[in-house]
Write a structure and sequence with these properties.
mainly alpha, elongated
Amino acid sequence: MNESGRVEAFSDGVFAIAITLLILEIKVPPHAGDHLWRALAQQWPSYAAYVVTFLVIGIMWANHHTVFGYVARVDRTLVFLNLLLLLVVAALPWPAALLAEYLRDGRASHVAAAVYSGFMVMHAVTFAVLWWWLTRNGHLLDPTVDVAAARRTRARFAAGNAVYPALVALSFVSAPLTLALHGVMAVYYAFNQLSVPIRGKDAEA
């Protein structure tokens, strides 16, 4: 067993790099001259993809930070599950750039939105598996955590496993609507996933 601090510190670095790389995909319009306002407005897909993906990564970081605040120790399985999660996080700037580039391109927009949604499926699955492992028997969690209650939150943590595949299908109907709903899901996770169940003082004693 090792302390969880190194795992969380490494994870924070990956989250920080991924979220920073997003802005690099918003380019300065070249040689726009007197039409700079119009050129800037035409880049709205890049702004939309940036904001939604920033929310996704930022809120996942916040929830990851909350969860690891209750991790007292780590084992090798948790280390590799966390690496799998970071594999998806580090890749998110690429589907965001892809969707920004093709959001207005007819059939290509559907493919780009489907790829983006596919990454979100992996995003949800990896976080759900990590939470499942932590709550499997609670041996890695702080003693203050109510493990039985934490297990009952698995369905909430795994909500994306049902919604994101549906968004893959919706991608072939409307790419802009799909991107908007990804933003809605990010907000859902911001408000619905922050609490880790804690035992009362009597139960803890």
